[in-house]
Every structure is written in structure tokens, then in C-alpha cells.
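Bump. Still looking for Inositol 1,4,5-trisphosphate receptor-interacting protein C-alpha cells.
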Amino acid sequence: MPVGIFRVCLLVITAIVNHPLFFLKENGTVPENTEEIIQKMKEREESLRLEQLRLEQEIADQEATQKALEKAASVVEETKEEKVRWDMWTALSMVIFLLIELWRQDFQEGNWQDIGGEEDDMAVLGKAFKGVAFPNKAVLASFYEKRILGTTGDMARMREMVEGFADDLLEALRSVCNRDADMEVEDCMGVGSMYENWRVRKPFVCDLIVPFAPPEPYCFRCQTWCSGDSFPPDEQGYGTIKVCRADEDVTGCICDKTKLGEDMLCLLHSQVNTTRPSSEMEDLLCFKNTQYLDADQVMKWFQIAVTKAWNRISHKYEFDLSFSLLDSPGALKIKFRSGKSIAFNLTPVVQYENSDVYFISHFPRSSLAADVPSSTHWFLTFAVYERRFIHLVSKTLPANACHVSCLQILSFLHGKQCSLTGPSGLTNYHLKTVMLHLLQARPSQDWAPEKLEARLQDMLKFLEKCLHEKKLYHFFIGNGKISAELGFPIVFQRAEPLNLFRPFVLRRDVYRKTVDTFHEMLRNMSALINEYTVHIPLAHTNGIRKESL
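Sorry for the wait, here they are.
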């Protein structure tokens, strides 16, 4: 800008110096062609004026450009400051998110079942409970005495009869099997609702599991999803069973993994031992061309063996035995000549190491259950520990504690609602899991018989909370608070908690149906209980036993 002003001043001075009047004063004469000179001076003046305007315009443009550059620089600076602030907030948000995630994982591992004994912790009432008329203590007590107890009086006699017959059948099975080639069958064990005394709906079905082992010199090597190897989410809760020789190293000899030279010999394994024909593995009920036990092959073998055993002892009994369900290979039915029948399940299982956890070949299916990954994947059942836990806790509870009563009433209501609106994703096992969580969370005095109404409400509230969050954790897996008296394997206590409601996340249609059924059950609960309480005579329980639930 100063340069431009200097150039303007220089032009003005030059014009003044070169003006003709100066020469007039010096020469003392006026030129003859005055008009021509004046015309030239005007042209010169005009050109100078235009030059001045051009220079002023140039100076203005330079000033505008300078201002634009200064404004752009300030915008860039502000953008940098905003970006720095944004990056700072982004980083801070990420840190907060990571801290929350770490806290959630710690809470899940350490306190995932910590439901708490406070009423506030259980107060998760949603819209489903608004306007629900809950039966009072007197109505619940009357309903339980007349409807539940009246229909479960014959369970003990039925269990005794089924167990005696199953023992006789398995003894005959051992006699028809080849001890050198067939699987070795052990004594059966009763599990499930019939042996935990909370089954309420007919037909009553006894669930018996039968452990078996391979013939010598073979043994089972069990591997679970929590044994260290990575299992996909849909295989959590499952495991595999490898059939090996008893003298075989668990990790496998190097001769199986490396090509030995012609002049080298493994001192641990001979050539005969290292090469196993596929027919031998199939005889050991393994999947084709593998060493892994096949659940389908096991059930086929077991059905054939049971049929042979029954043919041997059938002359001693005055009833018929048959397989009742095609989709449940271990389902058997005793048919008497009078037309009555008794159903029970006899399912082969494999013991996990030296514990009471078992790999079960076939598990009762539900609409929520996902398909089994393959026939070499076996589901793990903790039914023996569940029965033992309920038995141990019952010793610490008041006389006539209401924990079993709550489960029976809830199971009855859910079963009645499903008979009206169709099956849902909830099963009796989910209801039992809710009871197990509350048994561990609440003090023993809270389960006194007069608190039946409050504990039933707690179970419904807890179940609603689990449905809302789509999270119901397995009671034993990942539960570090299990008493050492139970003898539960530590490997499952340290495992990640297993969400029984995980399929709800994947199957929205089943989830919607389950939630609708649960809400409908809440609305119909009072009417169902009052109906059965009113219409069942007070002193006529024999008629109740004959009525089907």
C-alpha cells in the first residue's frame, strides 16, 4: 500500500513540473499553438486520472485480498481448534466407554448373579404388572393344597416302580451285550422335576440317565467349550468325546504328527497301534473316519440293546414296553392291559472326568433350542448337581418352605397358558433356573410358608426382568459362589456365564411370542387360580387325582 501512494505522488509531482505555465514564465512568450497544447494537456490529464483510478483499484484489490487471506487464516485456526476439541471429546468418550465395558465385565464375572436381598433390587415392575390382580395368601394356599398336592400324591409310587423296572432292564441289557466289544452300562440315576418333587403337569414322566463307558483298553477323552480352545457361540454348552486307547498320550505322540524315516521306529507305539481301521472306530460308535463319539450311533446301539434286553425279560411282566417318541430315542412307555400307561426316559450319558457332570446324547427340545452343531457335539447336563443343590439348601430353610410351591404354581400357570395360546420359548428348566438364583440370593427365612405370595411375585418379577434384558444365566456355569460342599468342578465355575436366553436375540419371532404369552399369563393368573380353587371340592382330593392337568 505505501508503494502505491508513492507512485501516485510521483505522478502528481511530474505533472506539475512539466506544466506549460512554467515554461511560459521562463520564456516570456506564449506559444502560437495554444489550443493544441491545451488539448494535449487535457488528454494527458485524462490519462493520468485513469492511471490514478487503476492504481486505486489495484490498491483496493490488494487490500481485499489481504483481508480474505487473514479471514481464511482465522477460519483455519478456528477449525484446528475445533478439531482438537472434537478429538479430545472423542478420545474421552472412548475412554469412558472402555471403562464402562471393563466394569460391566467385572460385574458380570464377580456379581452376575448378585440379585440382592433388597426389595429395590427386585422392583423391576414393567407395564405387564400394571393392573394385574395378584391372588392373596389365602387363595394361593388353598389353590396349592387342592390343586397341586392333590395331583402329585402318586409320584413317589410311580418313581419306585419305574426305577425297579429300569434296574431289571439294564441288568438284562448287560447280559445280552458282548463285554469285550460293547459299551459297559452302569446303574441309572433319576433326575429332573419328578425327583426334585415339583412336577405338576401330566403325564408324569421319569427322567433316568444311564452312564456308559467303552470296553477295555479304550477310554473317553472329554473336551468342553470352556476347556481353553475357542468354540463359536452356538457351541457353548456343548463338548466332544474322543475315543482313545487307555495307554495313549492325551496330547498325542509325535509319531502321529511327523513322518518318520524308514529306518526309524517309535518306541511308544507300534505300527499296529498307530493305524486304526475305520471299521474299528465305527464299532466303538464313532463318527465315520473320526475318533469322536457319535450321539446318533450311540442311540441306535442303545435302542437295539434295550430291545434285546426286553425280549429276554418280557415273560416276567404283564405289560408291554415300546419306544413312544420318534424324535426322542430314549422315550419308553409301559402299557398295561387295563389301558393305563407309564412313560419314562432312559437316556445314555458319558461322565465328565470324575464329576457328576454328564454329556447327554439327546436333550428334550424346545422352540427356543438351537439345532445341535453336529452329532459329535454332546450337550452337558448339570441335573445331578441341581438336584443336590436343592436338597442341600432345603436343609437350611424353614419347615414347609415355599420354594418348591412357588415353582410348582408358576409351572402350572405357564403350562395352562401354553395350552391356551400355544407353546412359547420358556421351558420348565428356565423357571427352575429362576428359582435357583433366588434361593442363592435370598436369606433362608424369606422362604417361610407364609411368604408364598411375596416369593411368587419375586419369581415373576425376576423372570420379567430377564425377558426384558434377554438374559438368563445358567445357574452353575460361571457362578463362583457355589458352595464347596457341593463338589462342583472348578473349571465350570471359572467359565464365562452362559446366557440361556441368547437365542431370543437371534429369533425375534419366538421372543415376541414368549413375551406375549408371559403377559397373557399374568393377566389370566388370578382367574385361573380362582377357577380351580372355587370349583374343586375341599374334601374330595381323589377326584382331583383323576383329572388331567
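The first strand starts at residue 184 and ends at 185.

Edit: fixed formatting.
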